[in-house]
Structure prediction request, 479 residues.
Amino acid sequence: MVSLLSILSTSASALRAYEQVLNVTQNNVANASTPGYAKQSQQLCALPGDPEMGATGGVKAGVIQSARDQYAEQNVWRQTVLLGQAGQNVNSFTALESLFDISGASGIPNTLNSLLASFSAWGQSPNDTAARQTVIDRATDLATSFRQAASGLEGVVKDTNQQLQQTVDQVNNLVGQLQGYNAQILRGDRNDAGLEAQVYSTLEQLSQYVDITARQQDDGSTTVLLGGQTALLVGAQQYSISSTFQQPDNPVYPDGLPEAQILGADGSDITASVTTGQLGALLNIRNQVLPSYLGDANQPGDLNTMAKQFADRVNQLLTSGNVDNGDPPLAGVPLFTYDTTDDTNVANTLSVDPTVTPDQLAAIDPGPPEVANGIPLALSQLSNPQNTADEINGASFTEFYGNMASRIGTALTNATSQQTVQQSAVAQAQNLRKQSSGVDLDAEAMVVVEFERAYQANSRLISVLDQLTQDTINILSTA
Prediction:
């Protein structure tokens, strides 16, 4: 038969269990807005109840379980890394777009149109010294615009290099924080809900920079891989990445931009596995987009190609003409100069030969037939090419520049649209995660009410048992 003391012990055990439930609930409410926190629940275990055998039953507190959903966490990371990539693209392409004015109000389009217009005006007055001086002045302006564009792009290269290093440092710093958390867990803090929240909050921050895979090990520590292959963290051991800039073997243009590389802790090149996130976006800008304009080890770059072909065509036409009809006639001189030893440095060095004077510009096309203003007329046709010699890759020089600028504009538009889409995707993923593992204050309030009532009922039972025990003692003492 179950004694009063046994019932009293069972009720006291239940009170302790309920108290732990209320403590866990209180912790949930307190951490409802804590980044990375997942709802905790106190499990209750029924004790065996068999009065014949003296087992009084009751309840005891079991393990505390986390409601964290690993699939929901990974979904947030997948969307966050794409948002980080889109955001970086928006920032980088915005900086590039400012260097390419397609309105024609400034920069290369403005000075190119002005030079072409000066060719046309010279053709109407081929012997006019003022018209020839205007050609020299407008050519100087165009050369300056090319150098400014090249300088601006080099500034973006420098900024991108710095951002690459800063992003690599940020990745290593965040992994370093995770290493510290792993060390705490391995020392015995694996059931600390607050520590777990810090781990997952840091993982979410890390996911905006690189594509990560994170797995919780049996010992409670978290293993982090970059791109699903390269270890960043295993147990208490961190594997730091680094960035470097190197030319490939046997470069076509040795002085072109070196390639940005990401190296693993063992020095191996892991650049190919870094394709998304802010770091992936920066690598694409640095290794693909910028070299397409400024050149690298394998290409001269469109800006240099345009500067070279335009300067060469103008010089070719000028040197094919004559300044006068003397015997022999005085030949024309080239107008533009640039670094002929490095095709990746043309735009940056393009200039007008300072020794050229207006009377050295050849207007006469010797023919046959001879045309007194043939050269300036041929130069003016560069605005509307009539033969392939006046084109660059099948387009006029103006169109070629427009194509360069439009690539940036299109990329920026796409990146902006992608950023908007990803912001919604991240918000949706975070909302789904909250539904599965977040703290619902209404649900927690119901738990509080439920167990407060159970606590009160058991407290009442203990009071009754206490009174019965006291009455029994009093009866026995008077018998």
Notes: Residues 73-300+398-429 form one domain.
